[in-house]
Amino acid sequence: MQGQYVLQPLVVGRFPAFPISKFLYQNNSTETIEAPCISWLARSSSSNSVVLVDTGPAVPTKETSKYHQVLDVKEEHRIDKVLLAHGIDPQEITEVVFTHLHFDHCSYAEHLPNARIFVQKTEIQYAVAPNLEHRNGYDVGYRNVLPSWMKAFDKFEIIQGDVEVAPGFRILALPGHTPGSSGAVFDTRTGRHAVVGDLVNQIENWEGQGGKHIAPTLNCGVDLCFASFSRLEKEADVVLASHDYRMLDSSQYGASK
Ligand SMILES: [Zn+2]
Hints:
6-stranded mixed β-sheet, Metallo-beta-lactamase, Chain A, binds zinc ion
């Protein structure tokens, strides 16, 4: 059958103690949780399409560890090494979608030599000159720090809005966490699966409370987040989280009924 994908979560780093209040808007808890950085691999059963959605954070440096949340990333978390550990040649990756350009989502794509990398124009524009309060997310304005995504800039395909990349694989513009956030939606045997970056950090962002989704605390507009949630309700059957260990309870998504 045409355009059916199987998805797999790959752990490419972890925050040992991330405040829950930063994931869930208006949550006043002082609790922290261990949170993985997940890169999603999507393989087509009918073509050679092998897609990665996000590629994770870089190994912290003396400079970046001053202003990022404490992050555990080692050399073995590098996306090409993680792929090899799962028996996948990094050269096989045909497409990468960057859901957004925060430091924990877009490192080491320069090690995926054959990938086309899709990013929203709005996101690139914002990433090079963010507001002061967002510059640590984008690694902008610090001496001796170059944003990770710039190392793969030669492979960028700059998009605006929604794009159908291949049968069963679409990119949707889903602003809210950042101005140019995207999601990737894959047709699978068990319905349309969406990977949407940090609009859905934790399962609770999507499943919500009292029938209402929960915006991410780090956002560029709560109304934008809710407009994107509404779109997702129509465009996806399953929405996957970006920083939630419970996603690893299954090693594959979309494989069989
Ligand atoms: Zn993130």
